[in-house]
């Protein structure tokens, strides 16, 4: 089988990609060979005759909403077999379920007035049967893949409309009874808040219980594999509930608007659980002042062993949460404590940390995730013999149970990829057509999430009420509290004490833990001074400033963990920030904030920038263009475009928004776009000036009609401030 580019076909309201598929359908002996009695499959090529068949595959690239909905009925005939799944997984970015359903049923599904091309003869029974089969196929896929789209309490308007259509056009069909059952199921279910298993409010506790700092003895009573299994159980329950389309950049980036405070609850619950694990690690290590250094080291060892058990269970979410906590400033700086951690456990910790190395856009964790997505068990390799023996022994116990394991990913990776795609690719192309090529790219990520959700059905874990109750009871320390306790446990680091051997490159830049548009940077705060630990910078490794978890009282997703640079990292001094895994699209302002590449089968995003809601930002290159171009990125100008980060001076000076600009954009265009992204009135363009931050004491102020792309300083970070004119 061979494929050949057939160019494009343009229709009214749609642009199609055409591919010619050439397939060999027969190989027979030629006339001379047949005269000798030869058979085609037994003769050399020169004595055979091959017959080929060429078919045309049409895949819609861009179109109006009407054309995209109509294509649901024709895609199978055009050999675009994945179109229905792609549309259903991504249409919420540009249309509502009601709009799609009305077009599908009223305009294209009406057997009496349909203008659908395949139903030229409306009196033909065969044509009606064809249309009925097509509609049924689309509806069946919709109910199978995205039944949550119809959950609209208390009226369920879309589901009732669908039921009415089926009664009139497909009475007594299996589809009708299925929709009736779904409606009853929704109506009978009470409105349930997603249970994150980690609520720290008193409502999540049994009467009479209060939040408490972990008792080391109680924590030590739980076996390592039990803790890992329970964390995995909680993660699995939450990840399976994640609604994939909520991860789309255009949807997830809208979560901070007031009217969207309840947006994507399943993702928020997953984030809350991740943060709860991280905070639990810190509180168990630092929460008890009376602990001796050796006891604290034992707790660190226990968490490393739990992280290893999570790796065996293929739970990358809790694994990363534990590693992130151990690399937080308040834990990382405990030099003396780390010296009491055994060598074997430190080596294990280093290997686990290497999984999340930020090298080449976290290539190691991505490859490992895809490699083990559908494998029955983890593939464990260790460079240390003792750890290898331990890993294989634990893995063999898992295999002996005869139960396959799923895979729980770190969701932030997918959210970041989707946000970057949303920023780099335009929503609409020339003529106001919806860019469906963008949705195909997004579906590549969504499909991975769905695959992993399906794999989670393989887990067979039983909840342990004792552990879950203990986990819920833990009082989480703010970052100030944890840093203060860390300083009490070990005073300023001594220059003669060697730093613990930690990960080589888990966090080389704080900016790449959570990438994207919303950057929370608390007011500058001078950290306590301490004696230097060495290195060219002469800065103490615990000199990072500490900021409060209370920075945003309305959010429960603030991660009070400040990853720090490893000893090998040239960045010796990094300001502490409350990171928000609720914003996996968050990135911090650092001297080196270039972002890594996002792999793709249709082109690459080299060092993609942080993402945001791209909205309908027009781009100059049409989807109808030829070969795929390199996508615009942050901190680098390429192909006449780039991504900049803009904050609002005074009003929202702690929040960045990523904006795509081209070499055609002037100050009014960029200013209006920045105001829109910060949810401000775009008409107030005249009241603001745009400046680029060159250094702490230098700014580049742009004249009113300047071309931002050519006027900006491309040798410093692409960080801008929108300031109200005096």
Automatic annotation (TrEMBL):
InterPro entries listed in its UniProt record: RA_dom, Ras-like_GEF, Ras-like_Gua-exchang_fac_N, Ras_G-nucl-exch_fac_CS, Ras_GEF_dom_sf, RASGEF_cat_dom, RASGEF_cat_dom_sf, Ubiquitin-like_domsf
A Pfam family hit: RasGEF
Protein's name according to its UniProt entry: RGL1 protein
Polar residues biased stretches: 541-551, 607-619
Domain N-terminal Ras-GEF: 56-187
Originating organism: Leiothrix lutea
Low complexity: bias regions: 531-540, 591-606
Start and end residues of each Ras-associating domain: 640-726
Region (Disordered): 518-631
Start and end residues of each Ras-GEF domain: 223-492
Keywords: Guanine-nucleotide releasing factor
